[in-house]
Amino acid sequence: MQKLPPISLVGVPTDIGAGHRGASMGPEALRVAGIGEALAARGLDVVDRGNLNGPFNPWQPPVDGYRHLPAVVAWNRTVMQAVGTELAHGRVPILLGGDHCLAIGSITAVARHCREQGKRLTVLWLDAHADFNTSTVTPSGNIHGMPVACLCGFGPHELTELGGSAPTLTPDRIRQIGIRSVDAGEKKLVHDVGLDIYDMRYIDEVGMRRVMEEALLNLGADDHLHVSFDIDFLDPAIAPGVGTTIPGGPTYREAQLCMEMIADSGRLGSLDIMELNPALDVRNQTALLTVDLVESLFGKSTLMRD
């Protein structure tokens, strides 16, 4: 596995795109769980940049199919700039969310960096949800259910063109893993664009090892791997601290194997940690588990492989 460059932690304390309050406390919960110390203990150069600032969450109903669109745009523009700065300095940005709408800004910055560096971007989207809603099919208007659609060019131009042009990504550069909740209208869109989804039934049928082998196939020296990790990817029996719990997710060992195989690829270049909601957690156990899994993502493995 290649030596990883230095790491920057960037907190984004907002639940502006979510349907429940509390993800704004996610960055601090991850710090309390020791994310910086755990990565530093692995010999990595870790700097905590503190928290970004943005609009207060007004908690208003949707307007024209979107909740809080101007504030979501403002937060994502700030995220895009912060992530882009870290990448430009040769660092691995770890975005501490915050709700998953923030991946629009994060991945837009990563995609621009990859274009400038001649790298091919692959996004691993670890999530219970496909996040491919639009204003016409969303049941809620919550933009944390729309980031993949926006990145693929389906959504308000303020978000689809955040980086100056659309789409930021084509669907063939995204691998979704752990999916088990897709809205009816969203399902048609996902099929129409041909999104590469490894849902829980497929994981049950063939196992996490084969899923990750397929998802990571053909990665080489010119590839940049971005992992967008929504904590509700995990089964709520082990990770209750999220706003949208969906039973039947990966077990602890399945999640560990997923992370270890990503680490083995040697291509990890950026990471989002999203939707941790301490208000719904039990003694910060979800944050502690998340730190454990992120350690595996950065090279910790079991027994003699460490």
UniProtKB/TrEMBL annotation:
Q: Which domain of life is it from?
A: Bacteria
- Catalytic activity of the protein: L-arginine + H2O = urea + L-ornithine
Q: Which InterPro entries match?
A: Arginase, Ureohydrolase, Ureohydrolase_dom_sf, Ureohydrolase_Mn_BS
User: What are the EC numbers?
Assistant: 3.5.3.1
Required cofactor names: Mn(2+)
The record, for Pfam families, names: Arginase (PF00491)
Entry note: cofactor: Binds 2 manganese ions per subunit.
Keywords linked to the UniProt accession: Arginine metabolism, Hydrolase, Manganese, Metal-binding
Q: Please give the name of this protein.
A: Arginase
Query: What is the originating organism of this protein?
Result: Dokdonella soli
The encoding gene is rocF
